[in-house]
Each structure stands twice: as structure tokens, then as C-alpha cells.
Amino acid sequence: MKVTVSRKAHFNAAHRLFRKDWGFEKNDEIFGKCNNPNFHGHNYELIVSVTGEIDKETGFVIDMKILKDIIKSEIEDAFDHKNLNLEVPEFKELNPTAENIAVVIYNKIKPKLDDVMELEITLYETPRNFVSYSGA
Amino acid sequence: MKVTVSRKAHFNAAHRLFRKDWGFEKNDEIFGKCNNPNFHGHNYELIVSVTGEIDKETGFVIDMKILKDIIKSEIEDAFDHKNLNLEVPEFKELNPTAENIAVVIYNKIKPKLDDVMELEITLYETPRNFVSYSGA
Amino acid sequence: MKVTVSRKAHFNAAHRLFRKDWGFEKNDEIFGKCNNPNFHGHNYELIVSVTGEIDKETGFVIDMKILKDIIKSEIEDAFDHKNLNLEVPEFKELNPTAENIAVVIYNKIKPKLDDVMELEITLYETPRNFVSYSGA
Amino acid sequence: MKVTVSRKAHFNAAHRLFRKDWGFEKNDEIFGKCNNPNFHGHNYELIVSVTGEIDKETGFVIDMKILKDIIKSEIEDAFDHKNLNLEVPEFKELNPTAENIAVVIYNKIKPKLDDVMELEITLYETPRNFVSYSGA
Amino acid sequence: MKVTVSRKAHFNAAHRLFRKDWGFEKNDEIFGKCNNPNFHGHNYELIVSVTGEIDKETGFVIDMKILKDIIKSEIEDAFDHKNLNLEVPEFKELNPTAENIAVVIYNKIKPKLDDVMELEITLYETPRNFVSYSGA
Amino acid sequence: MKVTVSRKAHFNAAHRLFRKDWGFEKNDEIFGKCNNPNFHGHNYELIVSVTGEIDKETGFVIDMKILKDIIKSEIEDAFDHKNLNLEVPEFKELNPTAENIAVVIYNKIKPKLDDVMELEITLYETPRNFVSYSGA
Known about the structure:
The structure is a homohexamer. In chain A, 29% of the residues lie in helices and 32% in strands. By secondary structure, chain A is of the alpha+beta class. Chain A has one domain (2-133): 2-Layer Sandwich (Tetrahydropterin Synthase, Chain A), CATH 3.30.479. A 5-stranded mixed beta sheet of chain A has the order 3-1-2-4-5. Chain A is elongated. At the B-C interface, strand 1, strand 2 and strand 3 of B face strand 1, strand 2 and strand 3 of C. Strand 1 of chain C pairs antiparallel with strand 5 (129-133) of chain E, so a sheet runs across the interface.
């Protein structure tokens, strides 16, 4: 019996969408006000969903306290109250779009889980815009 | 790397559930108070989800501004503050249940997207009732 | 010790904003698309807040079951799945703006409460627009 | 055309996570404060999602009133304002984790639906922790 | 310039509504299924609102970290995953209605704040029922 | 009959809490991670509440379209996707705490309203932290 267990978390961060190898005009055309060189920011709401068999002993797929700790050490401590472009190594050369942030979060959490577990990341950039990624 | 990008939108509309080819009694039996001939209405909350590869150049699956514009021109301009039964051509002969509205929205948005994109429509008729359709 | 007790409820309805004594052009200028003669509709979310002393015996300001029943008989049964303009007597000559609906709800619930109770009505017409009225 | 229809419901209950065949120390190590012998409780928010073909006659996958009645008789009447460990037979020998509760709810609702319908249960134990199960 | 600063928090707890000095029948008549002797429970959502002058130096009415710590030590540590009737001393002789819980929370937090600060407590017992108390 | 009309809006922005006349250590002690020199950011959710008499002619306290336009021109155009410290003149010498932002928003909107209208600003910095200011 496979069940999906989900945990919500959040972090606040500044970011800017742009490519160093494009001039300001092209960045402005593609990224609009998201290309503000002084940055803007978001309250990112994160849902981490882990799918696996229910452990007969405990009745858990994964202990929620363990999942909460993984999210804290891998994501919240690394991203919260940070400037994603300047302070988070994964985005030194990668544009911090919601899509790319979701992939980075997936890649940071996946190795911390038992191999048989499936993982899906849902990331709200604003209450009206969100993305999800499950490694496929 | 396939990522799903979702955008929330909303529209307010009046509607009535009934079939012209049924008498009032049968409509009343099946549709209950939703068959009120004077109409009732809803704040429809809509989530449009597009799945595709992340563009390496931009970091986007689809530019959210473009998706927002498609939703506005295809759905909000056509449905908002309208009587679905009387003013939206797709429902002239089709009962505007949440299920049918979701299919109509899917069919209006799908041709505006790149063919390789997958689409899912989630439609909240009330905060407690919602439907989703992905073309299958 | 005065405590305020609040109960959420909801109803779906169709309405139209207009004045019979104005022509279509003036109605259109003032009420815009809310003046659609075929009606549009909303999921109205209602919060009824009653303020009074805590009863020493029960620990209640008002029994929530009683408040729930008052809301059901006075508001939900009268407004839900109705056309406010055509089917709710209070709006036969009164424009069903959110402001006026809140006042009507206040006037229907107030007489059902103990005289010493204070009442406030909060009415969401959409998730982004709401009004409140407390009889002053 | 397969559409998924979802209905939200809720129930309040007390529970305790523990195994009778473990001593207090092991229960405490695994279940922490959820093992409080005096119980604690939750507002469980439930989403029941049914997938099937749209009925051409009615435009419904399933009549929402019927789905609402199934949820009421099978789940709300059985679980609401109850102590899950002491009063709900399914948990006499089964630890009432969110995962196990979701499976129990699935197993109670599935036989009430037409065989061709697919079912998914999503259960929020708190606003930040939730699980889902679809019988696989 | 007086500003109100609010912080949301939450705790899960079991409780039962009843009076020791009433028989089961009267308790049942007044408190219905909330009088279940085996307890039931809630996710209580709490909003603590502090009103005072903005400090010219810091731009804060109160440092949110300090307010968060007060809520944690006074309320979350004392109430979370507890049985309110059996384990929280304030409710040994006081019926744990939402109204009474709000007053107890007010009385625990108020002495921890600067005397000139005003305090309001809002407590959601369920997403549809909530109470507020400001000491008057 | 005085009614309060509220409209929700939102803007995303980067900011940093610090005082130029304090050294880094004191800023760090008081503002913690909010003092990150590279900025962090938020999705600010704003509620603008206007209280006044219902206009007998229109049934409105204030036309919601007019209120929406005032919020757009005064607040969203000025703050959205901006760095509050570097790009919004009001915060050149004023620490952009939620409290101070609420006061600035109040002072920008108040002169655009009829003098007899009362105004309250509620600003969510995160889903769990918010402030309100009504000019007193």
C-alpha cells in the first residue's frame, strides 16, 4: 500500500531573473520587472511529498519529524532570508526561476531519502503561481 | 526535466443546471436547487497547469505572462460576469456542470499552447467542490 | 468578560447591480459588467460575529449550534442557490451590493439574538472583496 | 472523457499513536508527544476524489449530493467528535497514523462507488501535514 | 502612531466539554457530542495581536522573535499535544470551551508584555468557528 | 449606516532591516537574519479597508473599481517587484519594517479618499506575521 506523505514549509528570499550572457535589453524583454537589478523577493511556500510503502511496524511512510528535519537542514537553512542569486551556490550560474528552484530542491532532498521513496516538490512563488517537479 | 507550471485565475458567473429535453420534474429530481430557473452563481477559481521541459535558455517551461494572457483572453474575458447558459456559446446545448466547464476550458486553452505541452484544468465551483480534467 | 464568537457560513447566489429608475447607460456607467441583465453570481462567504459575556454555567457566549441554526434558517435557506434580485424580497427595491446584503443579513439575524448581544456581519463577495457591518 | 470530482469534508477527533506490544519507552522514542496516553486531537480535513467518465445525460461524473451523503454516513458519522483509538473499530488494533486513517477511509468509501470509478483520499492531519492514498 | 502586530501559531489538543457538577444527561443536552467522555480534538489556530506605539529606533512595535518566543513558552509548550481537561492546570475546574481557552491564553500572555501594550487573542477551534478576546 | 469595504491586493518586494547609523553588530543583534546586506524578500498581501456611509443612490460605500485603481497607482506600481530600501523614496531613511510599510501605505492612500472616509491598512509580511494601522 503506497501512500504519499506531504509536509509544508516556507522560506523568504530575494532573487532576480537574468542571464549574465545577455545584455540588459534582452533580459528586460524576456524577464520584465523580474529582471530588476536591485532584486525583489517572495515568500516561497514549499510542499515536499514522499511516496512509499506504509511501514507495518510504525504505520508511517516516513516519520514526519525526520522529513521536517531534512527540509530544515537542506532547504530552510540554505535559502531562508537569503539572496538566491548571490548567496546560494546552486544559482551562481543558474537562473533562479521557480522551475529551476524546484529542481534544485528535488536534487538536494532526494539523496537524503531511502532510494525506494519517490519524491515530488511543489513550490509556490506567489499564492497564484506555482510549479511541481518529480524527477522525471 | 519536465516541470508543471500552474497559474490561478478566477471568474464569477451565473448558471443553471438543466436539460431542455427534460421536463421540470425530472430536472428538479436530478439537479435539485441547481435547477433554479432564475439562476444562481459562483466565484469559480481556476488552476491552469502546463507540463513541459524547462527551456535551457530562460529557465521557464512557459512564460507566466504568456500563460496569464491566454487565460485572460480565452477564459476570463469570455466567462467573467456572464450567464453561462445564456451568454457563453459552448453552453447553449451543454449543461454547465463543473465537469463540462472544465472540459470546455481545456478545449479552449489547449490549441493556444505548444503541441508538446500537457495541460490540466482544475476548477473550483465552491471552496468545497472541485473537478480536474487533463484531456484523457 | 466579553468575548466575540464567530461562525463561518456560505451561500451561492446570482445577482445584478442596477437601479430600475436609471436607464441602461447610467447603470452601465456606474455598475459596469455587474449590470449584466442576464445576471452573474458569487460564492458568498459569511462570518457572523456575536459579542457578549461568557455564561458562567456553560462557558459559552452563545451555543454555536444555536448560532448555526439561526444562520441556516435566516440566511442560507433564504439566499442559497437563489437569484437575489428576483427571489429575495428584501432586494425587490434594494440594489444587492455587498454593502446592502450585509445590512440585510444584520437586520435578519439581530432580532433572533438576545438584546444584549452585539452583532457584526462580514461578507466576502469574492476572495478579494469583502464588507463588514455592525449596526452603527 | 475522464474527469476527477473532489469534495472536501472534515471531522474532529482525538487519537494517540502507540503500539500495545511495545513498552512506553519504545513508543515514546518512535512517536514522541503523539504517544501522550491522555490523547491529543486534530481537525482532520478530508478530500475525496472520484475519477470516471462524464455521464452524457447529466454532465456529472457522480452527483455531488450522493458523494456528500457517502462521506457523511461512512466517515463523518463514524469519526467526528470521536476518540479514534477507543471508539472506531478499525483502529482497535491499527495505529491511527494519518497514513492508516487514509487507507481506512479509502476502504470504507470504495465499495459504495460504482466499480469503474477510481478513488483518491487526501487527508490533512494539520494544515502543514497531509497524506494521500489511491489504492495502489 | 499605534500599530497592531499579529502572529499566528497553532497547537493540537484533545478536550471534552462538561461540568463535573452536572449529570451526564444535562451535559449531553448542553454540550452534545462535545461531551464525549473519551475526548475529541482540534488543531487550534491562534492569532496573538499586540497593539502599541512604533519604536522610533527599531521600527518595531514588538520584536516578532520575542512575541514568537512568548507564544512558544506560554502556550505551545503548555497546550500542544495535550489533553486540556487532564493535563492543563487552568482547565482542571474550568470548562475548555473556545471562549474560556481564549481568556486563559490572554491571561498567560498579558503579564509577559509591556504594560502599555494592548492584547487581543483570536482562537480558531475549527476553520469555521473562532472566538476573540481583548481583556475588556 | 456605516459599512467597511475591504479590498485585497499584493506586491512582491525585496528589503533589508537595518539602520545606517548603527554598526553591523548592533543591526545584527536587533534585526538578525532580516539584516542580510544582500536583501531578502516577501510576497506582501495587503488589505485596504475603507469605512463610510452607504451611498443611497448606488448602494456603495466606495466603488470597488475606484479603490482598486487607487491601490494600483499608489501602492502596486510603486512597490511591486522593487527593492524597498533602494527604490522606494519613503524608505530611503526609514527602516522598512512591516509596521513602517503599513504607515507609509496609509499615508499614500488616505489623501486619495473622501475626507469623511476612515481607512485601515492590514499588511501580511508572511502568512504568519501581519500588522494593521488605522491612523490613530
